[in-house]
From TrEMBL:
SUPFAM superfamilies recorded: Bet v1-like
CDD domains: START_1
Cited Pfam families: START
UniProt keyword Cytoplasm present: no
Entry keywords, A to Z: Signal
InterPro entries in alphabetical order: START-like_dom_sf, START_dom_prot, START_lipid-bd_dom, START_lipid_transfer
Signal peptide boundaries: 1-23
Residue ranges of every copy of the START domain listed in the record: 24-203
Protein name according to UniProt: START domain-containing protein
């Protein structure tokens, strides 16, 4: 289940394009309502990677539980159209399938993500996201995202506050209009973190 959400989150990120591992030169693109979004160029890709950072007034366990709620997570993930668990092996190793909603006339995307969970020494958590496009057969009417790398990093800051970082690099497959690519890399982390925060802080 945890993998599902992670994937889901990735899903939203899917369009975020390009660069967790290779992105290095992060530039602040938007700072709004306590959420900072950074973008980075990625060598060999025309799409930028994105990273969103926010402090949420909730502990790691509360946020982790929201990410494990596959059915409910689509409500706070930007552009999430559908999300489901494909396979789970143990508590921290799963595969999820997600559909990403695209504005007309852009063809919808879908993504299969292998999610692994790492517990950190400080009581935090990292959900590693890796695209696995061949794990699920092609779906008619969807363009499969061929590459995605990312992570969700939860770091406890004390007093019930968690720093959440959402970072993704991806190649969306097919052709994406420049206006959509440019807006998505900012909107995906901004809107996802904003909705996640609002949901977590109601708990």
């Amino acid at each position: 289940m945890r993998g599902v959400l992670r994937m889901t989150l990735l899903t939203a990120a899917v369009l975020g394009f390009a660069g967790t591992a290779m992105a290095e030169d992060w530039q602040l693109a938007k700072d709004e309502d306590g959420i900072k979004v950074y973008l980075s160029s990625v060598p060999g890709s025309k799409y930028k990677a994105y990273r969103g950072v926010v402090d949420i007034k909730a502990d790691v366990q509360t946020i982790g539980a929201l990410q494990d709620d596959v059915a409910g997570s689509c409500k706070w993930i930007h552009a999430c159209g559908e999300m489901r668990l494909v396979k789970q092996e143990g508590a921290g190793d799963s595969w999820t399938y997600s559909k990403i909603e695209m504005p007309w006339p852009v063809t919808g995307r879908d993504v299969v993500i292998h999610v692994t969970v790492e517990k950190t020494a400080d009581g935090g958590m990292i959900r590693h996201l890796k695209g696995d496009p061949k794990a699920v057969p092609a779906v008619p009417g969807q363009i499969r995202v061929p590459k995605l790398d990312g992570e969700w990093r939860l770091v406890p800051k004390g007093a019930g506050v968690t720093e959440v970082t959402y970072q993704v690099q991806t190649e969306p497959g097919g052709s994406i209009p420049s206006w959509l690519a440019n807006s998505f890399v900012v909107d995906a982390p901004m809107n996802t973190l904003k909705e996640l925060r609002a949901t977590a802080e109601k708990r």
